[in-house]
Design brief:
By secondary structure, the chain is α/β, with parallel strands linked by helices. The chain contains nine helices and 27 strands. It folds into two domains: 119 residues, Immunoglobulin-like; 361 residues, Glycosidases (TIM Barrel, Alpha-Beta Barrel). An eight-stranded parallel β-barrel has the order 2-5-8-9-10-11-12-13, surrounded by five helices. It has a six-stranded antiparallel β-sheet with strand order 16-20-21-27-23-24, covered by helices on one side. Belongs to the glycosyl hydrolase 51 family.
Length: 497
């Protein structure tokens, strides 16, 4: 019997914030340097130092927001080291990530240029762990003040006459860990203090994001909401999908066994429980849902590729990662009332990257293709789904085999995204679009990304081994959509009335 779902087209439940499709670029490994920034004198084609092939690929994704400069790096980053003539900028050691030299050539001006070229919102993470209130306050003044002041004048001296628009600002990062090993009570007080001096200059209104919990630390959320909820616009949450043990061995990105595939899917689906439970705490203090849940670090984290710097967090990206991305995006859609932004870690060459580069070469990962397929949901109306899908069984353990989310855009087109996480079994689905007239006359099409082995991936020798293809496994039958999902597949279906 087919799996069944009812998509309630006539009962939209709010808007899927486009910022759910956000990204994260840290000064870590080859994400910024080589991945995004090559310098103006590089033989690699670039726009004012930013490599053009990566720029074009990211523009295609319609990136809505980009988080920078970290991550753990943010709480050791002093922004004044990254402005002015590049050959005069302070060189420092990146103590968090590989002990390499950070030359500060990519700083505030370069990041804001990148966001302008991408036509995305900048999301800057300030330094609470090793910085000062004055330093954070002056950074916001430098970027956003249009009048006469030491910081605004300094910005003009450095070549930027007009202030930038800066909407999103994070007051610290992982202050429970690399951002200072703080107790939640202590950080809540520090947050209240620091955010006071993140000023709104002119018509620039800053959306202030407090550093939230690690995974299931519900006490952290409780303390932050009860003590500082009134002073924040967003509260972050970090959770990584690690099939093994974070410290003893995370598991390989390639050549992994079946049980690690299953465990990866199980841990990816755990994100739904985390959002549900953190949101319940937030609801207690913020029933109007004014404060957004900002999941500004998520994605897969495996052991680094053999032979690479262990501090660079470089890993390959397979069809398994494509499924993890699709699962997360479906979950985020369902929690669109509370989840207002997420930022996958990370954009280029680090963890669950969109893009990998090697010298002048660039490739798009399976995760990139999922984001490109799912971007149709940005700013669309969420459509409720009631489903009775079967289970994915492996050695006595069970997971839901298929996840689904649906939306309707401003032009009336309906998009349905599906993930079949079973590495062996197909899924036959019946999707009823309740409240939609004349499905028989609609134009139905789709895209699919799938593979014939669990660790199928793209290489620089074969950059298109895993890529989307037209989806032919959908048809209108008896007033509903009949869908056939192959194993290990991510699909987006378009229904144009």
């Amino acid at each position: 019997m087919a799996h069944q779902a009812i998509i309630n087209v006539d009962m939209p439940k709010g808007i899927i914030n486009r910022n759910i499709y956000g990204h994260f670029a840290e000064h870590l490994g080859r994400c910024i340097y080589e991945g995004i920034w090559v310098g103006e004198d590089s033989p690699i084609s670039n726009t004012k130092g930013i490599r053009n092939d990566v720029l074009a690929a990211l523009k295609q994704l319609q990136i809505p927001v980009l988080r920078w400069p970290g991550g753990c790096f943010a709480d050791e980053y002093h922004w004044k080291d990254g402005i002015g003539p590049r050959d005069e900028r302070k060189r420092m050691v990146n103590t968090n990530w590989g002990g390499v030299i950070e030359n500060n050539h990519f700083g505030t001006h370069e990041f804001m240029l990148l966001c302008e070229l991408l036509e995305c919102e900048p999301y800057i993470c300030g330094n609470v762990g090793s910085g000062t209130v004055q330093e954070m306050s002056e950074w916001v003044e430098y970027m956003t003040f249009d009048g006469e002041s030491p910081m605004a004048d300094w910005r003009r001296d450095n070549g930027r006459a007009e202030p930038w628009k800066l909407k999103y600002f994070g007051v610290g990062n992982e202050n429970w860990g690399c951002g200072g090993n703080m107790r939640p009570e202590y950080y809540a007080d520090l947050y209240r203090q620091y955010q006071t001096y993140v000023r709104n200059y002119g018509d620039n209104k800053v959306y202030k994001i407090a550093g939230g919990a690690n995974t299931d630390d519900y006490n952290w959320t409780e303390v932050l909401m009860s003590n500082a909820g009134a002073y924040m616009d967003g509260l972050s949450l970090h959770y990584y999908t690690v099939p093994g043990d974070f410290f003893l061995g995370k598991g390989s990105a390639l050549g992994f066994p079946e049980d690690e595939w299953f465990m990866t899917m199980k841990k990816a689906l755990y994100m739904d429980e985390l959002i549900t439970k953190h949101s319940a705490i937030m609801d207690k203090y913020d029933p109007e849902k004014r404060v957004g849940l900002i999941i500004d670090e998520w994605g897969t984290w495996y052991d680094v590729e053999p032979g690479t710097n262990p501090g660079f967090l470089y890993q390959q990206n397979t069809i398994r990662d494509a499924l993890v991305a699709g699962l997360h995006l479906n979950i985020f859609h369902h929690h669109a009332d509370r989840v207002q932004m997420t930022n996958i870690a990370q954009t280029v060459n680090v963890l669950q990257a969109m893009i990998l580069t090697e010298g002048q070469d660039m490739l798009l990962t399976p995760t990139y293709h999922v984001f490109n397929m799912f971007k149709v949901h940005q700013d669309a109306e969420l459509l409720p789904v009631a489903s009775s899908f079967g289970t994915y069984e492996y050695e006595g353990h069970r997971l839901p085999q298929v996840t689904v989310s649906a939306s309707r855009n401003s032009a009336g087109a309906i998009h349905i995204s599906l993930c079949n996480i079973d590495h062996q079994q197909k899924a036959d689905l019946k999707l009823e679009l309740r409240g939609m007239d004349a499905l028989h006359s609609a134009v139905v099409s789709g895209s699919i990304i799938t593979a014939d082995r669990m660790d199928a991936h793209n290489t620089f020798e074969h950059p298109n081994a895993v890529q989307p293809a037209p989806f032919t496994g959908v048809a209108v039958e008896q007033g509903a959509l009949a869908v056939q999902l192959p194993p290990m597949s991510v699909v987006t279906i378009s229904v144009q009335p």
